[in-house]
Write a structure and sequence with these properties.
alpha/beta; Aldehyde Dehydrogenase, Chain A, domain 1; Aldehyde Dehydrogenase, Chain A, domain 2; 2 domains; 7-stranded parallel β-sheet; 14 helices; about 20% strand; globular
């Protein structure tokens, strides 16, 4: 039996275990699920020393392989981040139970009473890179929504993810929730991803990718089951001529530089021509002072000679770094056209004091998240009150925007009669 055969056998076993566990988990009470989540967060806090020691192994390998700065940033754990992971799980446990909600109900003329009620999806496969926290967030969100999960972390974060998974498994063993409700793929072999994308003989219901363009592209090309996710996060900030200067400066800086490596970081700044000469000098100055490289069109270069000339590729690049492209536009229509041409449907922000313009912008920009006078870095399930997120979807079917517990449910119809027969 060659290595490929070994992987296929392993993955089929994982799929079968998750599928069986999902049947039991779907009927678990909210109280049972919440106890399991609290046990998981408790064990993550208790195991902090071990988790950090395993994280050091990943960091050492990443540094030796000269991994990019944004990968190192996402990969790095410390006491504060571990506490944030545990606190996020606690927050998820306090969310309203997403299962069993009555979405709508009505009575037909013949007396049939119909309800549309939320239920778990089943088994969620999560494939991710360099993000140890996703191990905990994904497992917790799936548990809360009554779904089993199969977690496949990237090779860069393998030791960290496995350590967190061990804490999760320990927490489940201390509860009435089946331990097999959360599965972790214990190999970095890429064939395991291929097995997951095949659906494991219909054992996986949906795949959620969290990673770079190459990973997500592969998943979109090869998956034979539904996907919740996005390819890139080319996010825009548009400063309208009515914008408050202080808001424009602070929102632009936060959107780009709070954490440049996340998918909600702004990559392009658009600004109205009528205010460019007044606003851009201060905006460029503060961005450069905070270590940001500026690329811009000729009009932007004319305002500040430190600006590097932008090329066509810049408008279609997700930098994930301290770099931003700036373009001067005539008005909101040109800004919207730029976003329609170069955006990826992820997140856009408009800074304006004109409510009619913000309404016009939100109606015509077709992205999953649109912010008015707020940073693009709020594009996060935790910031939306979801406790955490399993990812952000730019698709149009089922889930769109941050994927939290409610987005990890589907529904069924319950029809109650009193002996009705169809004529």
């Amino acid at each position: 039996m060659d290595n490929t055969d070994d992987i296929e056998i392993l993955m089929k076993s994982i799929g079968n275990k998750a599928s069986l566990a999902s049947k039991l988990l779907s009927n678990a009470s909210d109280k049972e699920k919440n106890l399991a989540l609290r046990n998981i967060s408790k064990n993550i806090r208790q195991d902090i020393g071990y988790i950090l020691s395993e994280n050091k192994k990943d960091l050492k390998e990443a540094i030796q392989k000269n991994k990019a700065a944004h990968i190192i940033d996402r990969l790095t754990l410390n006491s504060k981040k571990i506490e944030s992971i545990a606190s996020s799980i606690d927050s998820i446990s306090k969310l309203t139970n997403p299962v069993g909600k009555i979405l709508s109900e009505w009575e037909q003329p013949n007396g049939l009473a119909i309800k549309r009620v939320t239920i778990p999806i089943g088994v969620i496969g999560i494939i991710y890179e360099s993000r140890p926290n996703v191990t905990a967030d994904a497992a917790a969100l799936c548990l809360k929504s009554g779904n089993a999960s199969i977690l496949r972390g990237g090779s860069d974060s393998f030791y960290s993810c496995q350590a967190i998974y061990e804490s999760i498994r320990k927490g489940l063993s201390q509860s009435s929730i089946p331990e097999d409700s959360v599965q972790f793929v214990p190999t970095t072999d890429r064939n395991a991803v291929g097995c997951m994308l095949s659906g494991l003989n219909e054992k996986i219901d949906v795949i959620v990718p969290r990673g770079g363009k190459s990973l997500v592209s592969r998943i979109k090309e090869e998956a034979r089951i539904p996907i919740f996710g996005h390819l890139e996060g080319i996010c825009h900030v548009y400063i309208h001529k009515s914008a408050d200067l202080k808001k424009a400066i602070s929102i632009t800086l936060n959107s780009k530089m709070r954490r440049p490596s996340i998918c909600g970081a702004a990559e392009t700044l658009l600004i109205d021509k009528s205010i460019a000469n007044k606003y851009l000098p201060e905006i460029i100055e503060i961005l450069i002072n905070n270590g940001c490289e500026i690329r811009g069109d000729q009009d932007v270069q004319a305002i500040d000679n430190r600006v590097i000339g932008a090329v066509d590729l810049d408008w279609d690049t997700e930098y994930l770094d301290a770099i931003i492209s700036i373009r001067i536009v005539n008005d909101e229509n040109q800004a919207i056209n730029h976003i329609m041409l170069h955006g990826t449907g992820h997140t856009e922000a408009i800074i304006t004091e004109d409510k009619s313009v913000s309404a016009y912008f939100t109606e015509r920009v077709d992205s999953s998240i649109i912010l008015i006078n707020a940073s693009t870095q709020f594009a996060d399930g935790g910031e939306f009150g979801f406790g955490a997120e399993i990812g952000i979807s730019t698709g149009r079917l089922h889930a769109r925007g941050p994927i939290g517990v409610d987005q990890l449910t589907t529904f069924k119809y319950i029809v109650t009669g009193s002996g009705q027969l169809r004529p």
